């Protein structure tokens, strides 16, 4: 995209200067497109939970008195669940807007302490896949103490497990393994989903990046989850890596530093 501008300077009726300015607008054009894509994605993501919230509130308002207590409780649970989802989405947007693409956000708030990673991972697995047994764990019998922010660690592992469930067939299990060695603990989240193309393995960690395939496009998402997850891992002195084979599945690994005693 180029913009041409022409200006001519006359003095006493004579042309003294003739200037043509060519501006390359490719970057501005791309930024503009990114912005409108972003607004479309966010609006869609916010509207999705909002539709049942409004619907069920209307139902409760007009027919709530005649509903059985169970039905009423079900409707309220659903409204609360969708509202929590919206709140997480807004939280992600705020977090992402505080982190710019280039460097890690030094002011990213993490409350670092010593926590047992086994307990945190078990909690995520039970919350996200306990009911239908889709999430299976392979955890050590004794505690694995790491230096981390407990809430942020739950958020990061929850994001990886959530993606593994979202981007693989409903019949496939997701495995979460925890290991500790060489001063580091690693949490592997293994799925047998559709995998990620080799040229996108680093891109999926970029802000708003989503793989352009029919499965991703038919699934809700903003492309912010992995961007935020990796930044949070960095803020806790860790990292997230990814191995994936198209068509057979992906393994995301979160690494965190062990909280070692002097004896190591
Ligand atoms: P979102 O899920 O909201 O789109 P993420 O940042 O969590 O955003 O993920 C970015 C993209 O990476 C997803 O849109 C999807 O295309 C791809 N992706 C993430 N996790 C997986 C996975 N386990 N299997 C296949 N693709 C994945």
From TrEMBL:
GO terms for cellular component: plasma membrane. The keyword Glycoprotein does not apply. GO terms for biological process: regulation of DNA-templated transcription. GO terms for molecular function: phosphorelay sensor kinase activity. The keyword Zinc does not apply. Keywords: Kinase, Membrane, Phosphoprotein, Transferase, Transmembrane, Transmembrane helix, Two-component regulatory system. Residues 41-260 form the Histidine kinase domain. It is found in: Cell membrane. This is histidine kinase. It comes from Catenuloplanes niger. The chain holds residues 493 to 756 of 756 of the full protein.
């Amino acid at each position: 995209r180029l913009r041409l501008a022409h200006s001519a300077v006359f003095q006493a009726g004579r042309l003294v200067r003739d200037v043509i300015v060519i501006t390359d607008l490719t970057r501005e054009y791309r930024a503009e497109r990114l912005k409108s894509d972003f607004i479309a994605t966010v609006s869609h993501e916010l509207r999705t939970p909002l539709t049942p919230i409004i619907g069920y509130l209307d139902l409760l308002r007009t027919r709530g008195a005649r509903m059985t207590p169970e039905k009423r409780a079900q409707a309220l649970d659903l409204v609360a669940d969708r509202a929590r989802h919206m709140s997480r989405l807004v939280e992600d947007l705020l977090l992402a807007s505080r982190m710019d693409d280039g460097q890690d956000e030094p002011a990213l708030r993490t409350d670092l302490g010593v926590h047992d990673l086994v307990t945190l991972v078990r909690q995520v697995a039970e919350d996200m896949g306990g009911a239908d047994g889709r999430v299976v764990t392979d955890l050590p019998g004794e505690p694995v103490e790491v230096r981390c922010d407990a809430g942020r660690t739950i958020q990061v592992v929850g994001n990886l497990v959530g993606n593994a469930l979202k981007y693989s067939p409903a019949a496939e299990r997701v495995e979460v393994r925890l290991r500790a060695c060489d001063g580091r603990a690693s949490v592997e989240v293994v799925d047998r989903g559709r995998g990620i193309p080799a040229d996108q393995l680093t891109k999926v960690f970029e802000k708003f990046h989503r793989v352009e395939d029919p499965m991703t496009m038919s699934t809700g998402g903003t492309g912010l989850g992995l961007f935020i997850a990796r930044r949070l891992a960095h803020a806790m002195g860790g990292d997230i890596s990814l191995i994936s084979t198209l068509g057979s599945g992906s393994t995301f690994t979160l690494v965190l530093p062990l909280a070692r005693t002097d004896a190591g």
